[in-house]
């Protein structure tokens, strides 16, 4: 069955899954998530595959969830179906999306996220579900919707960068560069943009030398350790917590702004007061009157 929203190929012991909605900066929509899940399980079943690379076409890895249809009721086919009418409808919908992404965690083969450009909101859900994340130095990573659109529906941040940096970034919606993300452990490492593909492919080359059954055993014991620390229970709770966040006054104001100004206008209104929206890992966060980071003067 052909794919419409992703590209899929198998070569030299790896499956490459490329998000292929570059005109939307690879925003996640239900058909793409369906295809992604199917491709992941196909790769897991393929004895030629030792590991999976997840990457994005065009200028971004993934700019988040596609919100153009968010909150609309499903088409009327005569069957009473869930929309966004109740908090349980909301939780159900969030968990449905989470299950698709969770295939990256549950599959036996290891995965690498190849992150360039924007990796925002749902893009971080996808990247952090991978076993390893390698980013371009200048990638832009964060969850700006935490400013006014609920909480994070998936939340593996604390297991990567610890509670303080998880709070610093989630409580403000600020972003970090790929280079800074590597410093705090949010990603495995960062490399110059021109070397990103070679870095990821080089790691895949090394895993192609290992028996896939051994790759599975070693991936799964680490994941089981994280599960014993509550990692998967937390993902279920994250969906419920996000639905709770959707009841906040700021979220109602966001949807009102979308109706009045459109998505782009609502985002601009939300983010303008945050200046460049960046966090600084090393040194003081000094800002100019526009809210942009500036270097400290001795």
Which features would summarize this protein structure in a list?
about 300 residues; alpha/beta; 2-enoyl-CoA Hydratase, Chain A, domain 1; six-stranded mixed beta sheet; three-stranded mixed beta sheet; 10 helices; globular
User: How many domains comprise the coordinates?
Assistant: 1
Task: Report on the biggest sheet.
Answer: 6 strands, mixed
CATH superfamily: 2-enoyl-CoA Hydratase, Chain A, domain 1
CATH class descriptor name: Alpha Beta
Q: Number of DSSP strands?
A: 11
CATH level-two architecture: Alpha-Beta Complex
Assess the beta-strand content as a share of residues. 5-15%
Would you mind describing this structure in some detail?
It is globular, with a radius of gyration of 19 Å. The model has no long low-confidence stretch (mean pLDDT 94). The longest helix has 24 residues. By secondary structure, the protein is of the alpha/beta class. The protein contains ten helices and eleven strands. Strands 1-2-3-4-6-9 form a six-stranded mixed sheet, sandwiched between helices. It has a three-stranded mixed sheet with strand order 5-7-8. Strand 10 and strand 11 form a beta hairpin.
